Amino acid sequence: MPNRLDLPSDFRWGASTAAYQIEGAVAEDGRGPSVWDVFAARPGAVRDGHTGAVACDHYHRYPEDIALMQGLGLDGYRFSIAWPRIQPTGAGPVNPEGLAFYDRLVDALLESGITPLPTLFHWDLPQALEDVGGWLDRDTAYRFAEYTSVVVDRLGDRVPTWITLNEPFVHMVYGYALGIHAPGRALMLDALPAAHHQLLGHGLAAAVLRERGLGVMIANNLTPVWTAGPDPADAAAATAYDALHNRLFTDPLLLGHYPDLSAFGLTEDLGGAVRPGDLKLIAGPGLDGLGVNYYNPTRIAAPTDPGLPFSEAPIEGVPRTAFDWPVVPDGLRELLVGLRDRYGAALPPITITENGCSVADEPAPGGTVRDPDRISYLAGHLDALAAAVAEGVDVRGYYTWSLLDNFEWAEGYHQRFGLVHVDFDTQKRTPKASYAWYRDLIAAHRALQHG
Ligand code: FCB
């Protein structure tokens, strides 16, 4: 059996974060409000009323955080750029102080030998754009491309590859269909235009990046879909769910068309959102890499609610994270092999852009944080990744979620995903046992390749 040390010699090791989850400084240096500032201020929206106002104070402490990355020996760091720092109202005037922050961050990373891998949109839309419809409005896609050109005009000389969007599926479903995340809209299937407009935004931004000779990626949340039972109705439900979660956001990019969503009562134009030429723009000449965010498989059964063509069934008999997510490392191998089988030559090289788990970590009296559950999660998933590579899937890198404990959206500071513990009262950073484990793994992998 291949294992994590068998990963290719040029394999890239990284860690991921996102702006609203770590930066804080939400009212500093001209940043405008984002949908997350407004949503988190709503009573009951986020557990215990937590907000990202301070988060990890990374905006001020980024040199210390880069030193932590250097201590791990990372090749790359995936972070996101806060659109409301760059354009406080989402359109028009550019805020020079916002650009200057990312300029400093990129330079500091490069000085430390770490390649920056920025995501242009990780859910913190300027509130001013939400006020005129957000991603339900087609115009937001054009604003996104404009913002992209502002950012890459400044940083494109030092940053070779860009991720346009983070998890458009999760943003559409949690933000616009269920209202669990910002902007807190509960439109159910009427949220579908938010899928198309995000993808259109991707296509328009990708054209801006390509014009400048830069690499284009997207980070999709993907899940292997398991059928709950032998009933054909379960299988039909699983096919429908797979179309919504996986294919809706990958088929148009790699195949140039939307999947069959007739089980949802939707036609191929997604309720009139799709205009002639859009799909050509979305697919463009292809992606330089597909970012895959993997956490767990999903088990699907026949519908129980008349509004949806599927229902979710529990996955039993496996360990669970503090977030209660099932731990199924082999699901990552299954997912990657499944992508290769589904898309064949149309599949670009893959990078795992997120994978990790939440653990209820607290420092022991001596100050150390032991997190054996995280270590076994990471080890299992990296072995599964190596197995997929051995089966012929082209995977170029692994960015774990996350470098630091951070603001976990609707869960506030309750879910800790970091390799580094953050005390949110004092901002003290304490590397956990998993930090040392990941550092040693990276070093051992390098030593094998060079020895
Ligand atoms: C993903 C998000 C990321 C983080 C992890 C736990 O869906 O992209 O920001 O919250 O989940």
Helix/strand/pairing class, anyone?
alpha/beta
Helix content: 25-40%
Q: What ligands are attached or bound here? A: beta-D-fucopyranose
Summarize model confidence as the mean pLDDT: 98
SS strand fraction: 5-15%
Strand order of the largest sheet: 1-2-3-4-5-7-10-11
The N- to C-terminal Cα distance equals 22 Å
Task: Sketch the major β-sheet.
Answer: 8 strands, parallel, barrel
- List SSEs in N-to-C order: EHHHEHHEHHEHHEEHHEEEHEHEEEH
Q: What radius of gyration results from the CA coordinates?
A: 21 Å
Tertiary shape: globular
Show unreliable segments: none
User: What's the total helix number?
Assistant: 14
Q: Total strand count, please?
A: 13
Q: What's the structural blueprint in terms of helices and strands?
A:
Elements: E1 12-16, H1 19-22, H2 35-40, H3 58-72, E2 76-80, H4 83-86, H5 96-111, E3 115-121, H6 127-130, H7 139-155, E4 161-166, H8 168-177, H9 193-211, E5 215-221, E6 225-227, H10 232-254, H11 278-283, E7 289-293, E8 298-301, E9 311-313, H12 330-343, E10 350-354, H13 372-390, E11 395-401, E12 420-422, E13 429-431, H14 433-450
Parallel strand pairs: 1-2, 1-11, 2-3, 3-4, 4-5, 5-7, 6-8, 7-10, 10-11
Antiparallel strand pairs: 8-9, 12-13
Bound molecules: beta-D-fucopyranose.
Beta-D-fucopyranose (FCB) is lined by residues 18, 21, 166-167, 170, 221, 293, 354, 401, 408-409, 417.
